Amino acid sequence: MADAHRRTFDAVCVWKLDRFGRSLLDCLHKIEELDYCGVRFIATTQPIDTDQHNPASRLLLHVLGTAAEFEHSLILERTQAGQARYREAYDKGEVGKTVHSHSGKDLPPHRPKRIFDREKVFALRRKGLSLREIAAKMGLGLGTVTRMLEGCSKSP
């Protein structure tokens, strides 16, 4: 896409639309970006061509855009239904017996991912432990320890 912004080419040619992106919505966003950059998009096995002189292709892209919005709505609806089912199973006490979360941790809904003693991290650093040693001792990721210590210029 960086090359498209620099106009190092005039057109993107793909075999089928689904080879261009992860989802229909993703494809359409990329095609819009190419169009904004003045780069033509062509799908050779489908009647898709973003040439301004091809109204049938424009119509097809608009229909696909509507389908992408529909696909996005269905995904959102399924996600919300799954979350509601999990909350209900959790409230009934079924989670951990017959129904398990995908992570296998069976955490309560809306619970913070991880709680740890920040003061202990600072104390270990003041004792001279390396970032890796602190991460191992606290059971945290190295990135978490690094970001926390860098984010606080003055440790408490």
CATH architecture of the largest domain: 3-Layer(aba) Sandwich
Mean pLDDT across every amino acid position: 80
Structural class: mainly alpha
| Contiguous uncertain segments of 5+ residues | none
Treating each run of at least 4 consecutive H or I residues as one helix, how many helices? 6
Radius of gyration: 25 Å
**Distance N terminus to C terminus?**
45 Å
Indicate the percent of residues in helices: 40-55%
Share of β-strand residues: 5-15%
Spatially, the strands of the biggest sheet line up as 1-2-3
Identify the CATH class of the largest domain.
Alpha Beta
- In total, how many domains does the architecture comprise? 2
CATH homologous superfamily assignment of the largest domain: Resolvase, N-terminal catalytic domain
Number of strands: 3
Assign an overall shape.
flat
Q: CATH topology of the largest domain, anyone?
A: Rossmann fold
What can you see in these coordinates?
With 156 residues, this protein is mainly α. The chain folds into two domains: 2-92, 3-Layer(aba) Sandwich (Rossmann fold); 118-151. It contains six helices and three strands; from the N terminus they run αβαββαααα. The chain has helices spanning 2-5, 24-37, 55-92, 118-126, 131-138, 142-151, and strands spanning 11-14, 40-43, 48-49. A three-stranded mixed beta sheet has the order 1-2-3. A hairpin with a 4-residue loop joins strand 2 (40-43) and strand 3 (48-49). Helix 5 packs across helix 6 (142-151). It is flat. It starts with a helix and ends in a 5-residue tail after the last helix. The model has no long low-confidence stretch (mean pLDDT 80).
